[in-house]
Write a structure and sequence with these properties.
alpha+beta; Immunoglobulin-like; 2 domains; 4-stranded mixed beta sheet; 4-stranded antiparallel beta sheet; 2 helices; 8 strands; 17% helix; 26% strand; globular
């Protein structure tokens, strides 16, 4: 559509719209620096009892082509009533980056999704315990028996 000065702005706006669309689409995909993942699932217990509604976090350590400045994104999973979890890194249940990981447990006590009182009681002795796990393709289910 011509402006008062007689210039047409239709083409540049169309080019701008395409450019913004491409940038937005590119931002929704994995970046070129992202690492491949492998499926990881497991069971968390604290002193022999399964713990529900806590976050299990696998944080990759540098190594195997992953520099200290960029070892990769952490994977997280929430435990169910039986302590079972499945890790997600970039998408739902896609697993974790292969390699050595520091494993931490986090109790999320969100007012909209409160952790059950039994979970708080069962996990309390194990909250500050950490583990180191090697994530590999084809690995068996991870058994995290904390507090033993």
């Amino acid at each position: 559509m011509p402006s008062q000065s007689g210039r047409s702005y239709g083409v540049p706006l169309a080019v701008l719209a395409v450019f913004v669309s491409l940038l937005t689409a590119a931002g929704c995909k994995r970046g070129t620096g992202d690492y491949k993942t492998v499926p990881v699932s497991g069971i968390l217990t604290c002193q022999g009892k399964p713990v529900a509604k806590v976050q299990v976090i696998f944080s990759p350590q540098p190594g195997a082509g992953r520099p200290a400045s960029s070892p990769g994104r952490s994977a997280m999973g929430e435990t169910d009533a039986n302590g079972k979890f499945v890790l997600s890194t970039y998408g739902m249940n896609d697993g974790a980056i292969p390699g050595t990981h520091d494993v931490m447990i986090l109790l999320m006590d969100d007012p909209e999704r409160p952790a059950p009182a039994a979970s708080k009681k069962n996990i309390a002795p194990c909250l500050h315990e950490t583990r180191v796990i090697e994530v590999k393709r084809g690995m068996a289910e991870v058994i995290l028996n904390l507090g033993e």
